[in-house]
Amino acid sequence: MPDTAAGPNGGPIEGAPAPAFTMPASGGRTVGSADLSGKPYLLYFYPKADTPGCTKQACGIQEALPQLGKIGITVIGVSPDPMKPIEKFAAKYNLTFPLASDEDHKVAEAFGVWVEKSMYGKTYMGMERSSFLVGADGKVARIWRKVKPEAHAAQVMEAAKGL
Predict the structure, then answer these.
(1) Tens digit of pLDDT for each residue in 22-65?
(2) DSSP 157
(3) Do the Cβ atoms of 144 and 152 come closer than 8 Å?
(4) Contact in structure between 140 and 15 (CB atoms under 8 Å)
(5) Measured at the alpha carbon of residue 121, what is the angle toward residues 114 and 49, in degrees to the nearest 5?
(6) Catalytic-residue membership of 54
(7) Which 3 state secondary structure label does DSSP give 162?
(8) How big is the chain by its Cα radius of gyration, in Å?
(9) What DSSP state is assigned to residue 37?
(10) First and final CA of the chain: distance in angstroms?
(11) Are 128 and 149 in contact (CB under 8 A)?
């Protein structure tokens, strides 16, 4: 990918091809960009399963799933958590869309969302709450960075209608 197609932290920009990925996901599934070829999808990155913001965001997406499905959007949530807490999170909130584990944060790095964060004066590397709407052509149609969990599903619905 040429330098001009790189956004913040080396991730893609709108209009650029989405990075390829394959990850284990909830329900014994595997999710991968190759399987989504020719289909639009939302890849959303969240910091940690079963925390307040991530729960609001996931439940909002789950609620919007029927409408997103009607317009042909596949949704995949991605966190750096191992599969066990992801499976518990999915079961606890009846989340039917795949929640993928990116423990080595390779996918997050490819999308430019594995970033330096700070809390209580300490800096650490972590997942930036961000989303990427990818068109059927495999190109990033829309990017949301530092997503507000409560508003996310509505923003995705609005943008997805334009695909």
Answers:
(1) 999 999 999 999 999 999 999 999 999 988 888 888 988 999 88
(2) H
(3) yes
(4) yes
(5) 45
(6) yes
(7) coil
(8) 15
(9) T
(10) 23
(11) no
